[in-house]
Structures are given as C-alpha cells and as structure tokens.
Input
Amino acid sequence: MNAFAMPLLPLAAALPEHPALGESIIYQLNGLVVVFTALCLIWGLLEVMALWFKRQAPATVRGPKSVAAAMPPPVANPGEDLEPTVVAAMAAAVHATLGGGMRITSIVRVDAPDHGWGLEGRRQIHSARKVR
Amino acid sequence: MLQGLLDYFSTTGFTLITGKMLIMWAIVAILLWLAIAKGFEPLLLVPIAFGALIANLPTRGVITAEMKPNGVYESATFTIEGRPVAHAGHIAPDGTKHEVQKLRVDRVEGGLYDFISQGIKLELFPPLIFLGVGALTDFGPLIAMPRTLLLGAAAQLGLFITFMGAGFLGFTSKQAASIGIIGGADGPTAIFLTNKLAPELLGAVAVAAYSYMSLVPLIQPPIMRLLTTDKERKIRMKSLRPVSKLEKLIFAVMVMIVCILLVPDASALIAMLMLGNFLRECAVTERLVHAAQNEIINVLTIFLGTSVGITMAAESFLAPETLKIIVLGVVAFGFSTAGGVLAAKLMNVLSPKNPVNPLIGSAGVSAVPMAARVSHVEGQKYDQGNYLLMHAMGPNVAGVIGTAVAAGYFLSTLSR
Output
C-alpha cells in the first residue's frame, strides 16, 4: 500500500454504510479539501513553471532580428516583373504568418490568360466536393 | 404438422417477452430519439440504447444474467470447466509455503458480452478511453491560465452535496458516492467508480451521467444566468499567452505525479490520460496518437456503451432507485455548475484587477468540450465580440482532473 493513502484510511474505517449528517458533512469537506489540495498544488507548480518559461521567452523574442538577416532572399521566377518591394512585402507576410524557416521559391501569376483552363478545372474539382 | 409448429413456437423468444421488457423498449426508443433526432451524445447514447435493447430481448449466447437471492442482479459471468492436475507446494521468495492448485481448463462457457463486459468489470475500458481523451485534449489554455484550476475544483461541489442527498434517500455510502460522481459529468470516471463501489447501479448511473452530459446546453444556462449579472457576463478576459511544447510535456508528467501521489486510487485514470496527452504533445509518435484518438477510443466506445446498456435489464433498471438516481443526477449537475460560477465570482472579488468572466466557471464540470462551448455561446448572447471558448477550456480540462481526483478520494475511503 502506498504511504500517501494512509491518512485517509482512518476516515474510511470510521464512515459507516449509512453515515449520520455530521459524519457526512465532515466526509464531504475532507473530499473537497483533497480535490482543492491536488489542483492548488498543480496550480502552484504551473505558476513556478510559467515564471521560468516567461524568463526564457525574451531571449527567443530577441532571436528573430538576427534570423531575419540570415533568411534566404526571396526569389521571383525569371520573367516576372515584380517590384522588389512587392516581393519583400510577400516575404514579410509569410514570415509574420508562418514564422521563420520559410522560403519563397517561386511567384506565379494565377490570373494569366494561359492559366484559365487550369483555374476552371480547379474550380470544378472544388465545386464537386461536398464541404463537411 | 400443427403440433410441430406449436412445439417450435414454444422454443422461440415470443413466449419469453414480459411487460417490463416492453417498458424498457419504450425507454430505449426515447434514448435513441434523443441521440439520433436531437443529437445528444449520439456516440454513447446509441450504443447504450442498443445494448439496453439487447438486454431486454430473450437472447441466447449474448449474456448470462441472473437475480441473486439478495436481490442483486448479476450479469456477464461465465463458467469455466476444468480438472485439477498434479499440484505441488510452492515456496515463495520469503520462504513461506503456499498451495498452488493447477487447473486444466477444458471449456469456457459464456455469451459474447459475458466476455466483452469484462472490460468494465476488470476496469479496462475507462482508463483506455482516458488514453484517447488525453490524446484529444489540449491542456494549453489551462497551462496559460492555471488559476482556472480552482474553477475545476469548485465544480466538484455537486459530487459531495449529492453524496449527502443520496444518503438521505437511503442509499449506502458506496452507492451515494457512485451517484454523486454523476455531477462530475465524466462518463468513464462514473463507470470506473460505480463498477468498483456499487456495480448494481452501473446501468442507471451510466445512463444518467451520459444523458445529463448531453443535456448540458439545457441544464447549465438557467443556473448561469441566475447566478450572474449582465455586467459580469460581459467581462472580457485577457488573451492567453502562447504555451510551448516543453511546458505541455512537463505539465503532463507533473500532473500525473502529483495526482498519483495524492490519490493513488485514481492512478489508472490519470496515468492513461496523461500518457495519451504526452503522446500528443511530444509530436514524435504520430501513429500512436492517431490510434489513440481514433481506433482505440472508437472501438472501446462501442464496447463500453453496449456493455453498459446490457446491464439495463428490466429486472434491475425498473426499480425506484433508478428514478432517485435520475433526480439526484440533476441535483449533482446543478450544484457543480453553481460551484464553478460562484468560485469565479469569488476570484473576481479577491482579484478585481484581472477578472474572469463567471460564465466560464460552469465549464468546470468535465463535459469536454460541450460545457466550454455553452460558456462561449452564453457569453456571446450578451456581447457578440466576446470569445470565451479558449478561456473556458481551462476550467473544462481542469474539471477532468478534478473529477478523477474526487473519484480517487471516494475509492481510497470507501472501497476497502
């Protein structure tokens, strides 16, 4: 038997099959104390853990400044006449939404006239599927 | 020829149908209607109802059941035929001699559910379902706002108050604990506890627990409105901080250790819950997580549901005690909801600078995620732009832990 169960046993032995009101109230209060103790202990440990992790957090926030410089430059497909500022804005959006480690390898206009058939095919495939 | 047909008719099940069975068919129809037409917890109510239908048909080869002289209805027992073979004294490591009887098993006789139901009798299904629950649960909101653990603890109030109420109605301590646990709104835990303390009430307790879990959107809102003001319902809470993977991993291990040390009798539930969650958060066991979240929990849900339903034979279910349990179940649910809401209000008094919306207190009952959704929907009725769902998930998952701890307390104090 686990030693931690020991304090509860005298109570178990004392609780009859049909306890009186006083016994029942004490039993309930003991139960609530056990539940609150367990969850408050976890709460306390989580607060300690949060303190430690919050202290670590600024170091990771500072990181991206140098990471941004190390990121590979976005590359537009040959033949695309996009302004460098547009490409930079796209790269920034990708970085902001998806985080570091992403790289834009191609940028293609989907509204070009030669993509019309492809777009129509895609539209038909999507419209043929039921959204659940 | 006519005599032959009459002889055959006497072997069919028609002659064995009783009036009580017909009443149970009506109850089954209501449960199926709630599950299918109303969408109330269909994943569990459908198997339970179907199991109840099987239990109230004159089946053969499904389950063995009999009414004992002491009035206890016992089901799911099988017989083993065997012959003793040569046996010898066995010396234990401490030097004492024990007699060991060896038996050659020739035949094991029992119906399908005599064996499947052992998953409940041997306490296998509820912990394994907790494995799946852990794999499906994100404890992030709780880790980000750990003070909501208090709401999960306060929402266990109904368990203990109902314990007293059940005592007044003539139930024994063990039965009262099994009925009180309904207030925790945690089906597997209710089954786990009832099977150990009062197996004769298993069917009624399980049906009450799952029915009320499904009725959370109807039961909780009036209590929430009664105990809160308009101003309180419009409280907007601060955004939750992001929680790292390492924090979630440490949390799973830490909660398991703390709970097992405090209430060793809840070990099976807590250990499997946190194993499932650890598998999920470590992100390197995708196949195992997928199995726990899908195949394991789905298969077990079918077996658990039908095994519970099959205990609802008319002889045991149509008793005054069942009606009392149904009434006490609502009381337990109501007090648990009120306990959570009042605890949130108390927290606001003690910490007015960083208030919590009291509507999330009701999510401390562990019907995940339905209770959290009810808090969110109720909050949006008074402030369209108030998103309480993630905040309510904190007390909601805290309630799962709280109910398991409460079950452990009942087991520690009553099962010996």
Q: What stands out?
A: Chain A touches chain B at residues 2, 4-5, 8-9, 11-12, 15-19, 21, 24-25, 27-32, 34-43, 45-47, 49-50, 53-54 (CB under 8 Å). Chain A has two domains: 1-63, 71-132. The radius of gyration of chain A is 32 Å.
